[in-house]
Amino acid sequence: AQTVTQSQPEMSVQEAETVTLSCTYDTSESDYYLFWYKQPPSRQMILVIRQEAYKQQNATENRFSVNFQKAAKSFSLKISDSQLGDAAMYFCAYKYGGSQGNLIFGKGTKLSVKP
Amino acid sequence: EADIYQTPRYLVIGTGKKITLECSQTMGHDKMYWYQQDPGMELHLIHYSYGVNSTEKGDLSSESTVSRIRTEHFPLTLESARPSHTSQYLCASSEIGKEAFFGQGTRLTVV
Fold it and tell me: Taking CB atoms and an 8 Å limit, are A50 and B99 in contact across chains?
C-alpha cells in the first residue's frame, strides 16, 4: 500500500526567508503524481504545486519549488521569500497515475511565518 | 467560473437528526471524493465515485452514505447524526489521474 510521510508536524520561518518542508512516500508504482496542497486556517484547500513522476525536472511555481528525488522517494517543498500569507497547513499527497488512483495525504505540516 | 461548491459551510444539529451535505462541481469531472478532517489534522478518504451510479467506500470506515445520480452532484448523507460525527467534511473532484480540486468544506457539529 502507498503511504505518505511528513516528519515535521510544525515548522516556523522568518518573513522573507526560505523554508523547506519534507515529504517521503512509499510506492511500488512507476506512474504516479505528487502534490503539495496548502490549507490556510478556515479556508479552502488549494493546490500549490504538482510533479509527474516521469519528469526528471523539478516543478516550480513562482516562489514554490520542489526537490523530487525519485530513487529516494522524497518530495520536499521549498518556499522562498516567505510571506505572512504562506502561513497554513501544508499537505503532501500522492496519486497513482491510473484511473483507480485516489489521493493519499500525509499528516500535514503546520507552517508559521514570523514578521 | 468552474468551481466546486459545498453547502452548508457550517451546521450545528441535534443527535439523531438526518442530514445531507451537498457538493456540486461545474468542471465536468468524473471523479469525486469525500474526505473527513478534524481541525488541523490529516484527511481521511471516506467515499469516492468514478462517475454516475458509481460509489465506493474509502479507507476510513464511515456511517455516512453517498449517491451519484448526476455527474456534477455528490451528496453525503448521515441517517442519524451522533456527536462522534462532529468533524469537517471536504468534497473534491478531479479528472481521472489528475489533481483534485476542493470545496470550502462543511464544518459539522452534532450536539
Answer: yes
B45 contacts A102? CB cut-off 8 A: yes
B75: preceding bond cis by omega (within 30 degrees): no
Query: How many residues can be counted in chain B?
Result: 111
Q: Which residues pair with A51 in a beta bridge?
A: A34
**A27 φ, ψ to 5°?**
-160, 155
* Contact by Cβ (8 Å): B106, B5: no
Q: Which tens digits make up the pLDDT trace of A49-80?
A: 999 998 989 999 999 999 999 999 999 999 99
Nearest CA-CA partner of A96 in B94, B68, B91, B26: B94
Task: Please answer whether residues A53 and A31 qualify as being in contact, where contact means their C-beta atoms are separated by less than 8 angstroms.
Answer: yes
User: Which residues of chain B make contact with A103, given a CB cutoff of 8 A?
Assistant: 33, 45, 92, 94, 100
Contact by Cβ (8 Å): A23, A77: yes
Mark yes or no for CB contact B42/A91 under 8 Å: yes
Total H helices, total E strands in chain B:
0, 11
Go through chain A and tell me how many residues it has: 115
Tell me which residue has cell 522562498.
A80
pLDDT digits (tens, 9 = 90+) for A10-58: 999 999 999 999 999 999 888 899 999 999 987 889 999 999 998 989 9
